[in-house]
Amino acid sequence: MNKKILASILVIGMLALAMGYGTYSYFSDTAKSTGNVFTAGTLDLKLANAGGEYTNEVTATWSSPAGWAPGETVEATLYMKNTGSIGIHHIRVGVGNLGGTGLWDAVLLTKFVFFEGDITDMVKGFGPTDYPLDNNKDGKVTLHEFINWCAQPHSILLFAGAWTTGPDYIAPGGTQYLTLGFTFDSDAGNSYQGLTASFDLTILAYQVKEQTTPIWVSEMSYGY
Question: What is the DSSP string of the chain?
């Protein structure tokens, strides 16, 4: 009988204690931060011929007329636009997909205007000491030599300020251009009649210098 009474008193005491906790509780509330999203920017380079629509690929920017003769020049401009949201810090030019039947040594690079800066003097042989355009120092830069130069690791054409700092050369929405002029060597002999040369030119855009610099590997060997 005493055990039952003690058990009843214990239960009553626990209920009273639980009611006491309810009496001394605090207010609380919750709120949420929703829709937290991380979105990567884009670096998107588009190309166009004069007055054309900007796309990922253009064709026949530089093409000679039928019956191209020694001494005649072909000149054209490739326009570039940054349609992304991240600035382009500097540019590389690569040449590949080479074809033809041997005209590379008779086609001379005689005009080189890049980003509104005429560096034609560099074309004539006053380029970087380590990687000169005029590799054999004869005062001419052939398509053959231009291809070799583009394959070098230091053929960065232009960059802003220091390698790692400075303004973007093509800001989002901005445009720039590359003008190249090719001349059929006036000293070319009869052995070049009917020969051809073709190539693809690739423009590679970089966000920062620290990105791995590619070595352009052409599909044919043109070493001197």
Answer: -HHHHHHHHHHHHHHHHHHHHHHT--------------------EEEE-TT---BS----SS-PPTT--TT-EEEEEEEEEE-SSS-B-EEEEEEEEEEESS-GGGEEEEEEEETTEE-HHHHTT-S-SSS-SSTT-SS--BHHHHHHHHTSTT-EEEESSSSS-S--SB-TT-EEEEEEEEEE-TT--GGGTT--EEEEEEEEEESSTTSPPP----SS----
Residue 141's identity, in one-letter code, is V
Task: For residue range 46-100, list pLDDT tens digits in order.
Answer: 999 776 889 998 999 999 999 999 999 999 998 999 999 998 887 777 777 778 9
Residue 21 β-bridge partners: none
- In whole angstroms, what is the distance from residue 125 CA to residue 122 CA? 5
Residues whose CB falls within 8 Å of the CB of residue 118, separated by 6 or more in sequence, listed in order: 112
Distance CA 223, CA 155 (A): 16
For the chain, domain boundaries? 45-206
Phi, psi of 86 (to 5 degrees): -115, 135
Radius of gyration of the chain (CA): 34
CA distance 53 to 133: 32
Residues 1-19 have pLDDT tens digits of 565 655 554 555 554 545 5
